[in-house]
What does this fold into?
Amino acid sequence: MNYPFPAPHQWYQPGDLIIGGIASQIFYVFYEVSFKEHPSQNMFDVPYVVTKFYQHILALAFAVKEINENPKFCPNITLGFHIYDSYYDARMTYRTTLDLLFKSHRFVPNYKCDTQKNLIAIIGGLSADTSFHMADTISLYKIPQLTYGSFPPDKNYGSQVPFYRMVPNEAHQHMGIISLLKHFGWTWVGLFTFNDNSGEHFLETLEPSLSHNGICLTFTQRIPQIPRFDNLDGFQDIVLNIYVHLTDDKAHVFMMYGESLIIIWLRSILFLSDPENREASSFKKVWIVTSQIDFILTGFQRSWGLQIFQGAISFTIHSQNLLKFQEFLQGIKLYWTQVDGFFKDFWEQAFDCTFPNPSVPIELIDLCTGEESLQSLPGSLFEMSMTGHSYSIYKAVYVVAHILQGIYLTGFKKRAIGNSGILKIQDLQPWQLHHLFHDISFNNSAGETVTFTDKREMRGGFDIMNMVTFPNKSFIQLKIGSVNPYALDGKEFIIHEDKIMWPRGFKQVVPVSVCNDYCHPGNRKKRKEGQKFCCYDCVPCPEGKISNQNDLDNCFRCPEDQYANKNKNGCIPKLITFLSYKEPLGIGLTSVAVLFALITILVLGTFIKHKDTPIVKANNRDLTYALLIALLFCFLSSFLFIGHPGKMTCLLRQPTFGIIFSAAVSCVLAKTITVVAAFMATKPGSTMRKWVGKRLSNSIVLSGSLIHVSICTGWLMTSPPFPDLDMNSVTEETILQCNEGSVTMFYCVLGYMGLLAIASFIVAFAARKLPDSFNEAKFITFSMLLFCSVWLSFVPTYLSTKGKSMVVVEIFSILSSSAGLLGCIFAPKCYIIVLKPELNYIKEFSIKLLL
It folds into this structure.
């Protein structure tokens, strides 16, 4: 098969059953083809080795070695392995997959010849594209394929691809990324991703979730997986775009999705863009790295370091540090094995030395001495502790081993024994393993349970790591959290913020990455037209609403028992208020009521003392006493409106006020009618004489009062008043008041009282010019005019006020109207009794008529 690559790298170890492997360690950089010579002569340079990924190959070899040395696994049966590389290239992946399936000494597709190779399962690949390219061939032969890289499932393959993923579902990682961004309030984020199917799928899946959670991508930079120099203009454009994004002042958080080669890309671009600043310490960014990506450099970049990624937060496949694996790595020395086709290129590029080559003079090269040690390599070139991908490969080998052990123990031995009595393990076919993967569950040497979900993915979550770099170009990763959807409620996402080492140079304790400054409490967001929704203006909350957090979309109202403070960023409990005896207004109204009550008592005492004088006898002395007593109770009824409203107080105050006032006005009406009837009775032959006297006045007072009593009784029976809280009338107060129950009945009470007053006014107005020394119709007219004016102005004033001011208006109306009656009717009489006693006389016949 002609192909412009050299012979593929491989490592083959024979065994009764072979586990195949496709690693991703080597790549080539292509150059422009000029056709001046055969293209294969200069299409590629020496291979670039991702030296850190040599551990993936060693992890497979170590797991096979450990299983072969363990007598518990299939006695007398040895496992072997055959490992190739994908070269990060689709055509080469197809080639090496076919090699893995059929090649022994020579390559004959779809035909096994010479030495029999019992390939039982294949582990690979690292990326989605590599795995799917492998599956195109492997799926035809129904060989189990165990992938060790985290990637989204391709919709085009569906369930037909026999993948068994040794890593958790990538959706868990998406959830962790969203939770991390929301936890720190990062809403303005850049994204670097490889320009492949996985990158597009990642965008399609994650971008809607980002938008739903209020997070915007400030840019999406797609990067080709392998740089090609046959289009230098396009390459330079990509370099320039990436550099512009890296120097963005607003976006302080970048996400990386793809494969580890993206690290090499970004580090190279920074070097090309700013050779003087090779450490790139001026780029203060927080990198969020997905689990597919490992922090790597090639051997040619050993002097650059990874300081640009200081403080990076990475989602990693969970791993355990196996001490035996470290011992295994310590045993790797120069020429440790002659069959490992990956070793030479790895060793040369890892330690920057060269194996002896007859075609190259020794004085021109640095020979590998054998004194080199893996422990001396920086973490970007090789790690002694097992990485997440290596741990996945290690577990994959053990999954196959446990399945083989299960088959061995459950009867395959009996079925496979022929006449010779020897176990023919070669008769086991790869497709026979598939139905056993679903039920596999075991504890590995690290004490962790290994099992698949119903979607053929490893059950579990991801670790969240924080990268800490050091001046000597080394780094460590510290665990700061985890993402595990199978954890207890509330523990699915855990982050220990206090353990994070942020990039150097940030002024804030926690870096901020937003399109614009936060909208502080008291303000809300207002979207800017023509820009992404993460870019917005801040406007103050409207009156009566608050915002108590940064970046709220809408302001909200306080609870009913609270009100917004001046800055509109918090709520203040409302004061519970009512018209109290202790406040100045309550003291003033109480004093006025007491004063007028005392004046009424004084007037009543004066009238009783001078009860036999003509002016007291005139206009029915009993009605005068009744009116004074009614006015006294009118003044005292105002006390029901002051103080803490209670159930009984609310129930009684309006009916009491109404009944007393109706009795007082009825007395005034009776006095007025009595005056008119008395003068009509003085005419010769008048029939009104029989109506003049106490019977008429008593009937008027009783009938007027009883009608009002019946109205109030109906009110109390149908919809009685009750204590209530008014939380809306006054912004800063909760008013404890009496709810009248039925507003209609309340105005019926006022209306009836008004009818009595109008009737009294009309009758008094008609009798104002009747001749008599003590005709009080004029005074009653003025009192009723004042009374009606007060209560007519009361209604609109009452309706226009709120809170306890309504109570004050009603008390003022009660006191002023009662004082008007007292003053207009009794002040002139007291003036005569006390100051002008010589005027206190009347004609005899008039007195008799009025008695």
In short: The chain is about 40% helix and 15% strand. The two ends are 142 Å apart (CA to CA). The first strand starts at residue 10 and ends at 13. Residues 155-159, 416-423, 843-851 have pLDDT under 50 and may be disordered.
